[in-house]
Amino acid sequence: MKQVQLITDGACLGNPGKGGWACILRYGEHKRELYGSEPYTTNNRMELSAAIEGLKRLKTSCQVEVVTDSNYLKNGITSWINNWKRNGWKTKDKKPVVNQDLWTLLDDLVAQHRIQWEWTKGHASHQDNNRCDELANRAAREQITNVSAVAVPEQSCNE
């Protein structure tokens, strides 16, 4: 099984407001940067989108290390989601789960891989996390999307 590293970040100018997500996929010596935007969204939706967009690019089942500075993303997918699904997508307070559409999509993508979730402190010493922060904020500001990184091979686990 191929080993891939996926580094993610999301940003929002206002919350809600203009949003951006970014991720970096690393496989061997290959690196691919992806980023995108939404005109009116939340930071949490952008954090989820970064992970989703990265995982969507993997063509076969992989061993994936996901590095995120979002406890919402990490805790949601590794812990909270089990109770949400068991409770019909309701929180412990019997309220609908916020961002259920993205959690459902992420859950489906996660099921296709063996994933290890790692938290890193944001705006600190993790170079790729800092780059994702830069790209996500740029995407939010400029409302741009780049899902075909220039001069970087298509990320795939069957390379």
Report on the architecture of this protein.
The chain has 159 residues and is α/β, with parallel strands linked by helices. The chain contains four helices and five strands. Helices cover 36% and strands 30% of the residues.
Radius of gyration: 15 Å
Spans of at least 5 consecutive residues whose pLDDT stays below 50 are 149-159
Q: Indicate the mean pLDDT.
A: 92
Q: Indicate the proportion of strand residues.
A: 25-35%
SSE run: EEEHEHHEH
Strand order within the widest sheet?
3-2-1-4-5
Number of helical runs? 4
| Broad structural category | alpha/beta
Q: Summarize the amount of helix as a percent range.
A: 25-40%
Biggest β-sheet strands, sense, barrel: 5 strands, mixed
Distance between the termini: 11 Å
Rough outline: globular
Number of strands: 5
Give the arrangement of secondary structure elements.
Blueprint: E1 3-14, E2 17-27, E3 30-41, H1 43-56, E4 63-68, H2 71-86, H3 100-110, E5 114-119, H4 127-142
Parallel strand pairs: 1-4, 4-5
Antiparallel strand pairs: 1-2, 2-3
Outline:
Helix content is 36%, strand content 30%.
Key features of this structure:
159 residues, alpha/beta, five-stranded mixed β-sheet, globular
